[in-house]
Design a protein that fits this description.
3 strands; mainly alpha; 2 domains; 3-stranded antiparallel sheet; Alpha-Beta Plaits; 5% strand; Rhomboid-like fold; elongated; 275 residues
């Protein structure tokens, strides 16, 4: 037997174990404290189990695991469940530190607009060609609740999946290069009065799109329907049909950055999520 990994939500792990069994992989669960669960599998199933484990870590609360538990029909489990809530706090804690950091910074900057002088904050964080730090800081600026929620929802979802599938290095690469490319593009094509994480989000989308196409044997990070919707949204943004001011060039160059990173990525898959 080999130790596949550990997880701090017994209920979620039980669902994963049930799902593994439906895929022909026997699993043994062990826990000393009823919270931190070790997942063990026979040596001969290591390759398939490792792939299923990474799939679980990328989205541990997917419906497939609950469905597998219902399908198994087992009423008894050696694990004790602390509660039946959504465990949103635990989900957030389990995210990679960089994904959490950007989320917290965006939230902090947004609420600072209501606590301090918004114009002063914006002037410090807006893009300035002569200031390299400001090539990144516009991604922290959001000008409405919907703008903030939309961007951060995609950042959490896509960012963590990319960390789980490709390793932490790729979330750093995507953030750095897409922030620079999207912010410079928007500045050159329009002006410096913009902000938001959407350029980076489109980079994650572009990366996820191409990564899934290059790895058809793995579950898609993002569905084709979602990709199509996001591409149409970007195209409509250029037409000004919705009478909404959007950083369209940031979206486009963010998307292209993500696509290029995915195309240049070697096919060898990594699973280092601890950097």
């Amino acid at each position: 037997m080999i130790l596949l990994g550990t997880f701090n939500n017994p209920r979620a792990v039980q669902g994963a174990a049930d799902y593994f069994k439906t895929q022909g992989v026997p699993v043994s669960l062990r826990s000393d404290d009823g919270t931190r669960v070790e997942v063990w599998v026979p040596n001969e199933f290591e390759s398939k189990a490792s792939f299923l484990w990474q799939e679980f870590l990328s989205d541990p609360y997917h419906d497939r695991y609950l469905a597998a538990s219902w399908q198994s029909g087992e009423a008894r489990s050696p694990l004790k469940y602390a509660s039946s809530d959504l465990n949103l706090t635990q989900r957030f804690i389990s995210l990679h530190w960089f994904v959490k950091l950007i989320f917290i910074l965006c939230i902090g900057v947004f609420f600072s607009f209501y606590l301090f002088d918004a114009n002063t904050i914006f002037s410090h964080l807006q893009f300035k060609a002569h200031d390299p730090l400001s090539w990144f800081t516009p991604v922290l600026l959001h000008f409405g609740v919907l703008h903030l929620v939309f961007n951060l929802s995609w950042w959490l979802h896509l960012g963590q999946q990319i960390v789980s599938r490709s390793g932490a290095m790729y979330i750093y690469i995507l953030f750095i290069f897409s922030a620079i490319a999207s912010n410079w593009a928007q500045f050159i094509m329009v002006d410096s009065r913009f902000g938001g994480l959407s350029g980076v989000v489109y980079a994650l989308l572009g990366y996820a799109w191409v990564f899934s196409a290059k790895n058809p044997a793995q579950p898609s990070i993002v569905s084709k329907g979602v990709v199509g919707f996001m591409l149409l949204w970007m195209i409509f943004g250029f037409t000004d049909m919705f009478f909404i001011s959007m950083a369209n060039w940031a979206h486009l160059f963010g998307l292209l950055t993500g696509v290029v990173v995915a195309l240049l990525q070697p096919n060898k898959r990594t699973s280092d999520t601890s950097i």
